[in-house]
Amino acid sequence: MDRATFSKYSWIDFAFSVVGVCTFLVDWGSDVWVATEFYCRGDFFWFGVLVGLMVLSSVVVQMFSWFWLKYDRELPGFSALTRRGTTVLFGDRVKLSCLLHVLQLGFLCRHISAIRQGFRVWWRKEEGSEYAVYLTHDLSMLRLIETFCESAPQLTLMIYVMLCTNKARTVQFVSIAASTTSIAWMVVDYHRSLRSFLPDKAKQGWGSSLIYFLWNLLLIAPRVAALALFASVLPGYIAAHFLMLWVVFVLWAWRQRTDFMDSVSGEWLYRATVGLIWYFSWFNVAEGRTRARSLIYHTFITTDGVILLVTWWCYKDPVQTESYALALFITLPFTYLLGLLFKTLYYCCFHPRLWRPPMRDPGLPDDLPDAEVTVRDFSIQDGAISSELLNKRMACHATHFYSEQKVLKNAKNEESAHL
Fold this sequence. Notes:
Layout: E1 3-5, H1 11-40, H2 44-73, H3 78-84, H4 94-102, H5 106-122, H6 129-165, H7 170-195, H8 206-233, H9 238-255, H10 264-278, H11 291-315, H12 325-350, H13 352-355, E2 377-379, H14 392-402, H15 405-418
Parallel strand pairs: 1-2
């Protein structure tokens, strides 16, 4: 079977790795700064909530990183790669890597490993391009998990505190806008990373990425705002609301028979994380066409958002909220509907497959749907097929987004043939 060209590691990938570690450090520093402000002002409850979110997010990300490290060590040729020095991700030092993850430093070490490997490939022109790409794809997924485990809940908390105190500085508005934009951009970055696993699919251009970014921004922002408004009038019920929806989402992920991780415990961790992501935004986890599942999800979230907004309107303080209540009550639903419109526009006019039809095997009909095109083998920049370096968990996740179930099975069978 013909091979398509797998993404090569470039200076852009290296730049994103450097920006990623800088963003991680700045985000961590800003969280500590905000937590310190809460503590110094005597707001010990908010201090505890913020620290709790930071710890929870860090633990979840470190657990994913550790699970993946264990899976990678079982890949054929891992020890040989370590001896050749082409891998920089902890190597064979299991105890050291375990200690780093316990100390919540595993994610940071992955960033450093990606920068080091990328520097060797891009600047020194050494071999190992496929492993550098491998690391960047794992980091993309880990950053997405961190975004919805920490950034989205923290953004909700920031808006909630601003509403409760009825005080808003310009820097707070800027911070909220920047955080919302960052969350939407991370979704776009993850989506672009997934598409690189399907070389037969058209790459996502800047125009397509912009529309993709806009509809995520316009859907996530009103969702977060509605949750904060509801919490501002019924703070004792927001936890119950989250737990109820989270359980429903986890069960829905289980019903879709997700298979992202290589162990039962890891898979349930993944389903629990997916439930948290779904609380804020759509995230596809199963093979096959996504239209029906996406329609069910957005119908459910739209209904829930309307309930949250109406509840806030009924229980709000008319005097305290007089200056902004009506504007929010009109703007938030309109923004969410506009986001749905942009999403429809994306799939109708800006989806990459509309600009370049996917390549097909000889003999296949021209009108075969994009989702039914075979996922082909990857040829790496360094030459030979290195199936042990192919990030199979992310590649299979990509097929969940863009392929039918039978295609996924074919891809797995082809991978097994190379082992």
